[in-house]
Amino acid sequence: MQGHPDTLKLLNDLLAEELSAADQYFIHAEMYQDWGLEKLFTRIDHEREDELSHARALIRRILFLGGTPNVAARVALLIGADVSTMLKNDLEVEYRVGALLKTAIAQAESVKDYVTRDTLMVLLEETENDHAHWLEQQLRLIELVGLENYIQSQQG
Questions:
Q1: Largest CA distance in the chain
Q2: Residue limits of the Ferritin-like diiron domain (predicted)?
Q3: Is the overall model pTM greater than 0.85, yes or no?
């Protein structure tokens, strides 16, 4: 099946975002582990795995639509130097991916590619209701209990 060129472009844009997010989460997870923040390491490493599963879904859809997945493309990583900045940077990535997913969903629907739309809807649900929501919760916790208490709660 041949996919619409605009849909394929957006799917490759999303692929670059998801692979970049996985790279960013990988670095942040390793930093958390190095600092002894085992709970943050575990969660962010899990998020990295989720981003790779999103990338896999995008690759499969691009291939099905007759496109070529561009696995070399990346967007700039937002690597933080402290816990608060790292969480904020990760949230910024999730917001950016969510916005691009909405654009791609609208594009797929406009060309009656409902399978691509449905695939992207699953990714959007995970991006908004799991990834972004959890990061928002962590930033609220820092505001409520203070950074020092939050960091202490994240140790292994």
A1: 54
A2: 1-146
A3: yes
Identify the CA nearest to 77 among candidates 9, 39, 33, 22.
22
Q: Is 112 helix (H, G, I), strand (E, B) or coil?
A: coil
Which residues of the chain carry a pLDDT beneath 70?
none
State how far the Cα of 113 lies from the Cα of 69, in Å rounded to an integer: 18
Q: Alpha helix locations (H) across 35-156?
A: 38-64, 83-110, 114-126, 133-145, 147-153
Phi-psi region of 83 (alpha: psi -120 to 50; beta: other; left: phi over 0): alpha
Helix axes 38-64, 83-110, angle to 10 degrees: 20
pLDDT, tens digit, for every residue of 82-102? 999 999 999 999 999 999 999
CA-based nearest residue to 68, from 9, 6, 1: 9
**Contacts of range 119-128, beta carbons closer than 8 Å, 24 or more positions apart:** 119/57, 119/61, 120/14, 122/57, 123/14, 123/54, 123/57, 123/58, 124/98, 126/50, 126/54, 127/94, 127/97, 127/98, 127/101, 128/94, 128/98
Q: Which residues contact 150 (CB under 8 A, 6 or more apart)?
A: 83, 138, 141, 142
